[in-house]
Design brief:
The chain is α+β, with helices and mostly antiparallel strands and 172 residues long. Helix content is 28%, strand content 37%. It has three helices and nine strands, in the order αββααβββββββ. The strands form two sheets. The protein has a six-stranded mixed sheet with strand order 4-5-2-1-7-8. A three-stranded antiparallel sheet has the order 3-6-9. The chain is globular.
């Protein structure tokens, strides 16, 4: 009887450990930074995904054999998926044309880069980011807009549509 209880206890502890480990891997968060680069005259958009989450998503939305670590074509395919889920509009709700720049692997992250020229009337944006939310309803997409060393942030969830974010105007 004691042996059976010990085995049961070990099983329960092991199950909890492995379940916790599996949950720890999927973060279900992505981060986008939008930075005004006055030197280049470009608005730089940097999407950061946890590589583990991106791999799982790519295998569902691209191909079950997608390998983001060793296959640059797979990374580009994921990047095109990611940028198709991100949109920006100006204050008049006119779409901004965003150019795909590339991807980069850095440790446990996959970065996807875009850019668009800075215009004089960029005092706010309408933003939409739905990446990974069709896969995981609890996915949260964080967006930070940095201008003049000041950051304005938003968190987008599955129920969110367009989110307006006002940014700090440049000093004159």
């Amino acid at each position: 009887m004691i042996r059976q209880l010990t085995l049961l206890l070990i099983s329960i502890v092991s199950l909890g450990f492995f379940t916790g480990e599996a949950l720890a891997h999927q973060q279900k968060e992505a981060y986008t930074s939008i930075v005004f680069n006055q030197r280049s005259g470009m608005l730089e958009i940097q999407h950061r995904f946890y590589l583990h989450d991106a791999e799982h998503a790519a295998q569902q939305v691209i191909d079950k054999n997608t390998d983001l670590i060793s296959d640059p074509v797979g990374r580009d395919a994921f990047a095109y998926y990611a940028i198709s889920t991100f949109s920006m509009q100006d204050q008049k709700q006119q779409p901004l044309t965003l150019t795909y720049v590339g991807t980069e692997l850095e440790g446990k992250y996959l970065w996807v880069y875009q850019e668009t020229p800075i215009t004089v009337d960029m005092d706010g944006f309408y933003l939409k980011m739905t990446a990974l939310q069709e896969l995981w309803s609890e996915q949260t997409n964080h967006i930070n807009v940095e201008r003049n060393k000041r950051v304005t942030s938003a968190r987008l969830h599955i129920a969110d549509s367009w989110h307006y974010i006002e940014v700090v105007k440049p000093a004159k």
